[in-house]
Amino acid sequence: MLQNKLKYNLPLYSSIIIWTFQIFGLIGILFWNSQWFINATPLCLMIYFGLVISNGNSSSLSFISIAFLWGLLAEIIGVQTGILFGSYAYGETLGLKIFGAPLVIGLNWVTTVIICASIVNKLKIQKHYKILTAIALMLLLDFFIEPVAPKMDMWSFSNIDHAPLSNYVTWALVALPLQLLYFYKKLEFSFLLSMNLYISQLLFFIALGLAL
């Protein structure tokens, strides 16, 4: 009985953890030891990834693996060639890298695809509109992350102080097959958790963008 109750309330408990991390992270960066909290970014991203996948089902394992490798490969190609997202480089904040791309960025691709797809999956619209809307949500989140990323030494573009249009176009193109696969496989993740993680991240980066 206790185990069933815990499983039923897992999305709620996970959402509380996320908001706690986001609120304390924002306060820490703005008013306390900013560098310490910024350096904790990879840990936070790994925790969010773990919470998201723990609120899914075992059939999603293949999708998670594909999304991780696809996202990481796109970032490696992007960093090494400058063709995909524009000429950019990752800083030290996101931790261990492979060919210039942090491993944790692959996890972040998985997390972002899942939460955006899970949110729009509740909408009573046709599947192709769900896919396009999920990609739009991903782009909206990235739009508010981009101005903050260089200030947190996550990544920065060369010879330009903002993300170029090519970054968003390529983001959409890289996300498209992942969203197609998500809805083709009819995956299910927690709407409650996804909504809370998306909104908390959106507000977090909007606040940092205004304050930093």
Folded structure, characterized:
By secondary structure, this protein is mainly α. The protein has one domain. 70% of the residues lie in helices and 5% in strands. It has eight helices and four strands; from the N terminus they run H-H-H-H-E-E-E-H-H-E-H-H. It has a two-stranded antiparallel sheet with strand order 1-4. Strands 2-3 form a two-stranded antiparallel ribbon. A hairpin with a 2-residue loop joins strand 2 and strand 3. Helix 6 runs antiparallel to helix 7. The longest helix has 30 residues. The protein is globular and about 40 Å long. The relative contact order is 0.17.
Jot down its keywords.
mainly alpha; 212 residues; 5% strand; 4 strands; 8 helices; two-stranded antiparallel ribbon; globular
The N- and C-terminal alpha carbons lie at a distance of: 48 Å
Please identify the structural class as seen in this structure: mainly alpha
Spatial extent as radius of gyration:
17 Å
Spans with pLDDT under 50 lasting ≥5 residues? none
Order of helices and strands: HHHHEEEHHEHH
Number of helices: 8
Strand order in the largest sheet: 1-4
Domains (count): 1
What fraction, in percent, of the residue positions are helical? over 70%
pLDDT averaged residue by residue = 92
Shape from CA axes?
Answer: globular
Q: In this structure, how is the largest beta sheet organized?
A: 2 strands, antiparallel
DSSP strand count: 4
User: In what range is the share of β-strand residues?
Assistant: under 5%
